[in-house]
Design goal:
By secondary structure, the chain is mostly helical. It has seven helices and no strands. It folds into two domains: 84 residues; 55 residues, no CATH class. InterPro entries: Cbp6 (IPR037653).
Length: 139
């Protein structure tokens, strides 16, 4: 039996809810996976809005369901909980503090990026931006 319009809309909304829960990557704000997933879902549903063949429609619907389940697994960290890593992995004998230092450095870089984004530009920066924008507009 072919899925109904209501089921397809429910699937679309489920995708949007999962994508909304996707964590923000503060280190790469210009390469946002949440945005890419949003575009892919919208484009995928828009592309296949008029599918004539029932078999193709069923294949697309059940394929989208499996993709939704995969995204849910990733967002819920199912694999991290199902396959926990031992302390030997987190603290290798050669350099036991390597991963804790790496995580601290990443957190520090993310915090600096957020602070830079929140910082107001100085008066000179605003004047320079204004002048270069107007100069480019004239040329």
């Amino acid at each position: 039996m072919s899925p109904t319009r209501k089921e397809v809309l429910s699937l679309y909304r489920s995708f949007l809810r999962i994508i909304e829960r996707w964590p923000t990557d503060y280190l790469r704000p210009n390469r946002n996976l949440k945005h890419v997933l949003n575009l892919r879902v919208a484009e995928g549903f828009r592309q296949h809005i008029v599918v004539k063949d029932a078999n193709d429609f069923n294949t697309l619907f059940f394929g989208a369901n499996s993709e939704l389940e995969a995204l849910k697994s990733l967002v819920d960290n199912e694999f991290k909980e199902k396959y926990p890593l031992s302390d030997r992995i987190y603290q290798p004998a050669a350099n036991p503090k390597y991963y804790s230092g790496l995580i601290a450095a990443i957190d520090k870089a993310a915090k600096q990026k957020r602070e830079e984004d929140a910082k107001q530009p100085s008066l000179w920066e605003r004047i320079f931006k204004f002048l270069t924008f107007n100069r480019n507009k004239i040329l």
